[in-house]
Amino acid sequence: MSRTLQREDALKLLRKYNQEPFHLLHAEIVEGVMRYFAYELGFSEEVDFWGTAGLLHDLDFEQYPLEHCIKVQEIMRGLDLDERLIHAAASHGYAVTVDIEPVHTMEKVLYAVDELTGLIGAVARMRPSKSVQDLELSSVKKKYKTPNFAAGCSREVIERGAAMLGWPVDDLISRTILAMRTLPCC
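Above: the chain sequence. Below: its structure as tokens.
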């Protein structure tokens, strides 16, 4: 019988494999954004699950960067975690490190917002406020069009994620900004 994790246990697991403050913060940002979208998209009964998927999506990245989205499956299966969680974590690397396609709406959201939260965060850090609270779509779009800005945030993945959801990229960016505004860190 596979199991799900309570947030405290998920955080312990995350910290077992990740120590870099940047990676830990990214995990918590994606967790919060996923929880926001679960409510917004009518999956309120799955909010905790969506949050856990966001929190653990990069579980293997710090220790196994060359096996990202591959090693996470082994780690999670070794812990007998829910196959839905394993599929979500693996599929966020679709067409980059694995050929596991996001299927569920939650997986598509995770795929779309993972890179985007990094880009939005980078734009926010350049502002005098260092916050998303006063960040507008136009500011993100301007930096989005600059390939060297936050170069590690794949625009191709962001665009593919928006297409999977059937949303224009501007919509995805605007909605993700709103989601990040609900987080204490941003």
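The chain has nine helices and no strands.
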